[in-house]
Amino acid sequence: MHWSWKLSRNLVKPQHIPRKVGVDIDWVHKHSDGSINISKSIIAAKEMVRAYGMLNLNVAPSLNSRHTEGYAIDMLLSWYGTIEIKDQKGNIVKIKSLPRDGMNKELHKIGQSFGVIKFHNSHKDKPHWSIDGY
User: Fold this and answer.
1) Where are the domains of the chain?
2) Which of 5, 41, 73, 78 has the fewest other C-beta atoms within 10 Å?
């Protein structure tokens, strides 16, 4: 996912993407004469980005992250009106404030009560929550 995102934006040359054991992807597409076809490589990377649902990501998926460690989740949240949620202590918290999505500060506090922290750089990765905000 990381390399397809970078290649789709022409931030890396396909021949510079390191091979990874167990991942059978040939990033280097070639012309019939054997020369590297950068545009074909980029088009294929864009298809992967679209297939993985990463078109709106503002940062490349990390090679090593709380996700790869099993300590993060991406959640798209939204609601209408007021919601009632129990915090970790069992107290019911009513959220009336805006925005009515995962960027709501009151929701962040409830998440923190369970040890689920909103990403510190939220505007770049809105759905990301983890054990420490990274």
Assistant:
1) 2-51, 66-130
2) 78
Helices (H), the chain: 2-8, 38-51, 66-69, 105-113
Question: 62, 25, 63, 58: which is closest to 44 by C-alpha?
Answer: 25
pLDDT of residue 24 exceeding 80: yes
Q: pTM of the full predicted structure?
A: 0.66
> Which residues fall within 8 angstroms of residue 111, CB to CB, at 6 or more apart?
117, 118, 129
- Residues 78 and 126: beta-carbon distance below 8 Å: no
CA atoms within 13 A on the CB side of 78: 2
Q: Would you state the pLDDT for residue 78? A: 97
Largest CA distance in the chain: 68
Decide: 34 and 93 in contact? Cβ < 8 Å: no
- Is the peptide bond prior to 14 cis by the omega test (within 30 degrees of 0)? no
